[in-house]
DNA sequence: CGGGCCATTGACTTAGGTCAATCTGCGTGG
DNA sequence: CCACGCAGATTGACCTAAGTCAATGGCCCG
């Protein structure tokens, strides 16, 4: 269990101050946000929001990983989004959402009461501008994901997933866009969650991990850690165009 | 071939005036938009934009249907969006897009030069607000599509596709949300395009049309027209939750 | 009448799902 | 400290939905 960091009420000390929905806000707008915000924490596995339930808050992810998922009548489920720090939860202008939101790891949210937040969108331009950028970024990611779900093989899906984790951890560590060397990766989900993310079964996820290991592309340290032995072969295995801006 | 409607330069007469990116603009903002807009038309099958090419314009679809698609190294392709009248093309703040845009039917676009449009986003709140709404709507649609691509069977995919067409044509005809009776549907794409939309092969699309016909759920008038015989059985065949807000 | 272009249908293959057995590591309680 | 149990992961055997390859059919247009 993580030792939950304590968050100061002051936005100026916030780790996502310059990337979240408030990124473009000036001092006065920040002061307004400050009055309607509150922090909430969730343990790994907790439900954050249920589909269809009235939405009292919108929120930014401050730390941890949350996931969005949809379910068919007979219980098949598909993850339709992975929310990382600075990502936004909620749908200003609508009072329900159409998917479940779950804490994948322990999560801290910065919540804003919905009504005053919507008023802020009307009154101050910078919130709407930033929210538009965040929505367009998520739309790009969703489209990459549609290509993966519709057309990639199981092997390509796993390779894409690991390549994404490699890029992200490299980005977080160095601020640099493209990793070039091998790396030790943290896999923040169970096989079952990965399967729901990639549109596979957990058995297929497990088998493809084994295949990539047998091919010498990765090594499995333990169930939550993987080392990439050959990043360029991993990237070839994703099936993407060489110059593909995927996850760029 | 359609008899192309003539569009008046005046926004006040525009068929998408109240739904497009300009929906919330006041008279003064409209005047600004009016100075940077121009109409362009494309024939069915024409490329509108290529992935990666520098983006001089952003645009709204005025009439017709356009599609967004992505392609893997070896040529497999997946449609990642279907643009109908009032939908928006482009990515303010970035000078390329990461997918191809193609005219599925004959298309009329209302194009805005990108730089002045971006300036407008900075200066006037209503454009950014509306663009945020449009992006969030597309994100909802993309998430429904991810569920379809990742988890639905071929039969469910075709049923969902036909149900979507039924809802749309009913909505366009009556302004009403949910169709209840059978209807004659226009299928605006070839089997191959449908396959790329649904993450299937064209043979599987054809076979599933035949199965739904054998089951008495639909009738095929010709290759571009279908009558829905039993809408409630069609909706059951989509696999969605009964109260599912899909395509709502 | 002939030649494309879609669409349909059939025969066969295969990637990935299903079901089931086994393994591994970890926290709990004796 | 060890034994137990449980949750997650792996692996194998088998099955099936959908893909592949190939032949045929209908339709429009010159």
UniProtKB/TrEMBL annotation, chains A, B:
CDD domains, A to Z: CAP_ED (cd00038), HTH_CRP (cd00092)
What GO CC terms are in its UniProt record? Answer: cytosol
Question: Domain HTH crp-type spans what residues?
Answer: 152-232
The cross-references to InterPro entries, in alphabetical order and at most eight, read:
cNMP-bd_dom (IPR000595), cNMP-bd_dom_sf (IPR018490), Env_Response_Regulators (IPR050397), HTH_CRP (IPR012318), RmlC-like_jellyroll (IPR014710), Tscrpt_reg_HTH_Crp-type_CS (IPR018335), WH-like_DNA-bd_sf (IPR036388), WH_DNA-bd_sf (IPR036390)
Q: What GO molecular-function term can you cite, just one?
A: DNA-binding transcription factor activity
Identify the keywords attached in UniProt to this record, alphabetized.
Answer: DNA-binding, Transcription, Transcription regulation
Q: Which domain of life is it from?
A: Bacteria
Pfam families with a match to the protein in the record: cNMP_binding, HTH_Crp_2
Q: What is this protein called?
A: CRP/FNR family transcriptional regulator, anaerobic regulatory protein
Look up and give the organism this protein is from. Answer: Loktanella fryxellensis
């Amino acid at each position: 269990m993580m030792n939950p960091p304590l968050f100061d009420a002051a936005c100026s000390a916030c780790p996502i101050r310059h990337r979240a929905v408030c990124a473009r806000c000036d001092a006065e707008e920040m002061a307004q946000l400050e009055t309607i915000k509150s922090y909430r924490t969730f343990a790994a596995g907790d439900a954050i929001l249920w589909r269809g339930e009235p939405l009292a808050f919108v929120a930014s992810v401050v730390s941890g990983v949350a996931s969005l998922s949809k379910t068919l009548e007979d219980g098949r489920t598909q993850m339709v989004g992975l929310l990382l720090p600075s990502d936004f939860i909620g749908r200003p202008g609508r009072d329900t959402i159409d998917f479940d939101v779950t804490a994948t790891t322990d999560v801290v949210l910065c919540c804003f009461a919905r009504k005053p937040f919507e008023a802020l969108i009307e009154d101050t331009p910078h919130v709407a501008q930033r929210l538009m950028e965040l929505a367009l970024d998520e739309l790009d990611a969703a489209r990459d994901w549609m290509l993966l779900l519709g057309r990639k093989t199981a092997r390509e899906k796993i390779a894409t997933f690991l390549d994404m984790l490699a890029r992200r951890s490299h980005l977080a560590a160095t601020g640099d866009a493209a990793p070039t060397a091998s790396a030790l990766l943290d896999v923040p989900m169970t096989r079952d969650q990965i399967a729901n993310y990639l549109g596979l079964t957990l058995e297929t996820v497990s088998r493809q991990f084994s295949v990539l290991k047998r091919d010498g592309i990765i090594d499995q340290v333990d169930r939550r850690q993987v080392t990439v032995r050959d990043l360029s072969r991993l990237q070839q295995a994703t099936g993407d165009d060489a110059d593909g801006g995927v996850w760029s």
